Amino acid sequence: MRSSSNPAFRNLPHGGTQTYGQYGPPVGFQQPQGGVPGYGPGQVAAGAGDRPMTVDDVVVKTGLSLGTALLFGVVTAIWAQTQLAETGRLSGALLGAMFAGLIVGLVVSLVMIFRQKPSGALTLTYSAAEGLFLGALSGVFEVVYPGIALQAIIGTAGVFIGMLVVYKTGAVKVTPKLTKWIVGAIFGVVILMLVNLVSALIFGFNPLRDGGPLAIVFSLVCIGIAAFSFLLDFDQADRMIREGMPSKWAWYAAFGLMTTLVWLYLEILRLLSYLRE
């Protein structure tokens, strides 16, 4: 299986006749004699009653995850806007929920990435946590820049749908060279973000996030990399389906897509705020 730029999809176990790498096969994975019809010889049958994952499985699990994030996000955004309108500041409870969402989302994502096992509970927990964090953040941005949250949601949905069309039509082929380019680009922007963070904390110099021309260019680059990461995420999910991974792994595919969606939304929200100044 080709490596993905998304860490959630790196080093996943393989279905079919492939090898499993250092993590071994999924829990409960059994290789049936003769394989599963429609998936080639030696495909997956994972435990009693499980079946190979399908596109519908990925769509449903991703939809549930996204719906959870939106539900928590909308409620928290309204909460934040109401408090800012009434008191001009966020309460300790809301700030606590915001930072709890940030920390829980980070911890759960690391657990999912390093465990390399599917979990519907953890995927939905991650979605809810990110919804809390992004909702509170979006509520604050919405008070300062009215309408910006909806614009960011529309922009994120547009990029997602556009890249899905690009992938399905084959306009851009996912090749090992493209994968390496995107992985390298992601490592590059992460290093730049860390250097910028250290610079901001120590020297008060924040060129990549200060809203200036360089910050706008950097956000555009991040949006472009996140968009191309969708191609690799789609390809990885597609390969999991073709190799007959157990249906429960659709939760892992949904988690990987959610991490890219969260990153993309944050970058679009930042860019829109820069352009409003």
TrEMBL record:
Residues 20-34 have a biased composition (Low complexity). InterPro entries: BaxI_1-like. Residues 1-34 are annotated as: Disordered. Keywords: Membrane, Transmembrane, Transmembrane helix. Pfam families: BaxI_1. Coiled coil: none annotated. This is Uncharacterized membrane protein, YccA/Bax inhibitor family. It comes from Amycolatopsis australiensis. The lineage of its organism: Bacteria, Bacillati, Actinomycetota, Actinomycetes, Pseudonocardiales.
